[in-house]
Amino acid sequence: MTDHLAARVAGVVGPEHVLRDADVKASYETDWTRRYSGDARFVVRPGDTAELAESLRILTEAGVPVVPQGGNTGLVGGGVPRGGEVVVSSSRLSSLGEVDAVAGEVTVGAGVTLARLQEHIRAAGWNFGVDLASRDSCTIGGMIATNAGGIRVLRYGPMRAQVGGIEAARVDGSVIRRLPGLAKDNTGYDIPGLLAGSEGTLAIVTRARLRLIPQLAGRAAALLAVDGVAAALGVVSVVRAHAPSLEAAEVFFADGLDLVLRHTGLPAPFPDRAPCYLLFECAARDDPMGELVGALEAAGGFEASAVASERSQRARLWAYRERHTESINAEGVPHKLDVALPLPRLEEFEACVRGTVKKAAPEARPILFGHIADGNLHVNVLGLAADDDRATDAVLRLVAELGGSISAEHGIGVAKTRWLHLTRSESDIAAMRAIKAALDPANLLNPGVIFGKQ
Fold first, then answer.
1. How far apart are CA 143 and CA 272, in angstroms?
2. d(C-alpha 434, C-alpha 429), whole Å
3. CATH code assigned at 356
4. Are residues 110 and 204 in the same domain?
5. Do residues 208 and 165 lie in contact, with contact meaning Cβ atoms separated by under 8 Å?
6. d(Cα 375, Cα 390) in Å, to the nearest integer?
7. Is residue 109 located within the same domain as residue 210?
8. Neighbours of 119 (CB within 10 A)
């Protein structure tokens, strides 16, 4: 059956774009975290929407499940096969439309990487509202499917807010096409908004109409040492009120900074070690340094500070936050718990979470950092086997008790299906299952993702 099916799909996409060799498939079968992997029946790389839609029709007719995959930079196992599915890669859906300078929009293929998009639109004087460290690998389709967030959400919103129109292939081979998209269109359900965050369970995005933002040349950053989360939240509140140009507000802690200094060789940012650190960046057409400094003076409440407007100096300040991930990975494969808390509960969560982890798994070591203005903390747990969920269970239950979300921006994937009920009600889940059943009645699109095995 596999030989016959592969031959039929090869007749649509070309034999060279149906990958069956084990060594060639390998990079599509394990995710970025190295915690999730499986065997793909084969990998398909369609070259356009028509090829993808026809491939889906053939696979659905045969009753074969499909896993959509973009840049394979996901962190919850939602983009790799679990066992026997066909992987449909968007890597060849790489069209880049001309920037519409009047609308401030561009239409691009789902397989375009974020870095390639940025290069394309910056040449025309524009920028994009979402930026991620995985920009060289992550793709627009995958970012939409996971409703990617990143460091600029406080100013521009997550990926869903950047999508003005969409084209996507349904499991039966039909195509949803809402392109180019209109700023005002109240003719029924918001299909682009529905597909954003659906993790490839409803349809496969093929192209998107993206909203762009002005390219802002003036930038200023500040790194602050503060006494704890309560003080940090106080500073953030005042800076947000006094600096309209604020684009990023990040937080990390002493143990994470120690890890970064050890693995990177960077010098300590300040002579004295502090419990907590804040990193701000403002962006405007002109230099926003005066606005940022004025906001910091109004806020007070910090023990030490460093500011920078020149690119290399800003990069030096950002390195203390951005190099957390590589430093954590250098210690082992972490359990990456991406959670969100109501801002009034963030201090309580940070005060409790390390003890919660230690109580559940004494050998575990949690390292925290995140996007403080969004209430989003990344709890990275080191020292546990890949299948040891003691710390995960304890942390996610603490999040639920405090009224938070078990996934702020990574999605549910297969990693968090067991805990979905903690922060989504029975009615919520029933409504989502109904939507899934309506668009994918045979459960062939990314089966097992979000809801678990059915």
1. 39
2. 9
3. 3.30.70.2740
4. yes
5. yes
6. 24
7. yes
8. 11
One-letter amino acid for residue 252 of the chain: F
**Residues of the domain holding 201:** 105-214
Q: Which of 363, 401, 356 is nearest to 379 (CA)?
A: 356
The domain boundary residue, chosen from 70, 92, 114: 92
Do residues 131 and 72 share a domain?
no
Q: Is residue 439 part of a domain?
A: no
Judgement on whether residues 223 and 209 belong to the same structural domain of the protein: no
Which residue stretches of 187-288 are H helix?
Answer: 191-195, 229-242, 254-264
Residues 207 and 222 in one domain: no
Q: Which tokens is 322 given? A: 């951005």
Task: Confirm whether 390 is domain-assigned.
Answer: yes
pLDDT (tens digit, 0 to 9) for every residue of the chain, 454 residues total? Answer: 799 999 999 999 999 999 999 999 999 999 888 888 999 999 999 999 999 999 999 999 999 999 999 999 999 999 999 989 999 999 999 999 999 999 999 999 999 999 999 999 999 999 999 999 899 999 999 999 999 999 999 999 999 999 999 999 999 999 999 998 788 989 999 999 999 999 999 999 999 999 999 999 999 999 999 999 999 999 999 999 999 999 999 999 999 999 999 999 999 999 999 999 999 999 999 999 999 999 999 999 999 999 999 999 999 999 999 999 999 999 999 999 999 999 999 999 999 999 999 999 999 999 999 999 999 999 999 999 989 999 999 999 999 999 999 999 999 999 999 999 999 999 999 999 999 999 999 999 999 999 998 6
- Residue with the two structure tokens 């954590």: 328
Task: Tell whether 14 is covered by a domain.
Answer: yes
Q: Is residue 31 part of a domain?
A: yes
- Residues 210 and 223 placed together within one structural domain of the fold: no
Q: What is the CATH number of the domain that holds 276?
A: 3.30.70.2190
- 223 has which bridge partners? 279, 306
Full-prediction pTM beyond 0.90? yes
Buried/exposed code over 292-327 (b: 16+ C-beta within 10 A; e: otherwise): bbebbeebebbeebbbbeeeeebebbbebbbbbbeb
Domain count, the chain: 4
Residues 6+ apart with CB under 8 A from 61: none
Q: Is 224 left (phi over 0), alpha (psi -120 to 50) or beta?
A: beta
Helix (H) or strand (E) holding 248: strand 246-253
Of 92, 113, 132, the domain-final residue: 92
